[in-house]
Design brief:
The protein is mainly alpha-helical. The chain has a single domain, classed as Up-down Bundle (de novo design (two linked rop proteins)). The chain is 67% helix and 2% strand. The protein has eight helices and two strands; from the N terminus they run E-H-H-H-H-E-H-H-H-H. The chain has a two-stranded antiparallel ribbon. The termini are far apart. Keywords: Disulfide bond, Membrane, Oxidoreductase, Quinone, Redox-active center, Transmembrane, Transmembrane helix. It comes from Homoserinibacter gongjuensis. It is a multi-pass membrane protein. Its main location: membrane.
């Protein structure tokens, strides 16, 4: 019997997992587009199609026009509109390829999603502790990116993309995906409440 090394094996997420990635990424892409419209409205003093200025605390303005909101010299909303296509392409590619893709492909994809997860938490930290405001559209992007990340972690570990040893960890994360995502949300929400007193502002 021939043993196939993980690097030469192919992997393919299940239909449910792929659809989850597509849905989360489509929502995040749409929100990124709305953020772009808001950004244009801020620059031109025109009314955006859908405003996110709800109160001095819940608003997009300080975040969108800050250096952190324009990491590469243009609005991060454009980054979202480009980067959230990645998980959509990966999921559709997996659905269209019965044989799946090799481990290196999924490892690069997982690291790509990890980068997005790290950026989301950096933006959340700066929004809460530096800008003192919460951007509602940004928060929707956070809400989509966090379960996307944990789902990718769970599947790649469980499927053996990183080798056989972490599979048990992937199974645990997959089983507890919803509670882990909820805890991640709660940590950010508690930080925002303690720093900004969000509930007291309404």
């Amino acid at each position: 019997m021939t043993i196939v090394a993980p690097a030469s094996r192919t992997f393919r997420p299940g239909i449910g997992t792929a659809i989850l990635w597509i849905v989360l990424s489509l929502v995040a892409w749409t929100v990124s587009f709305l953020l772009y419209l808001e950004y244009v409205g801020q620059l031109t003093n025109a009314e955006p199609a859908i405003s996110c200025d709800i109160s001095p605390l819940v608003t997009c303005g300080p975040n969108l026009l800050s250096p952190a909101g324009n990491l590469l010299g243009f609005t991060n909303a454009l980054l979202g509109m480009v980067l959230f296509l990645g998980p959509i392409y990966a999921a559709i590619g997996a659905l269209a390829s019965p044989g799946g893709m090799r481990a290196w492909y999924w490892r690069v994809f997982a690291l790509f999603v990890l980068g997005g997860y790290a950026l989301v938490h950096m933006f959340a930290f700066r929004s809460i502790f530096e800008f003192g405001s919460l951007c509602p559209w940004c928060m929707l992007v956070w809400l989509m990116t966090i379960p996307l990340f944990w789902s990718v972690v769970a599947w790649t570990l469980r499927a053996g993309v990183w080798g056989g040893s972490p599979r048990r960890v992937g199974e645990v994360i997959g089983t507890w995906l919803a509670p882990i995502t909820l805890v991640n949300y709660v940590v950010i929400a508690v930080a925002a409440q303690l720093r900004l007193d969000v509930l007291g502002s309404f």
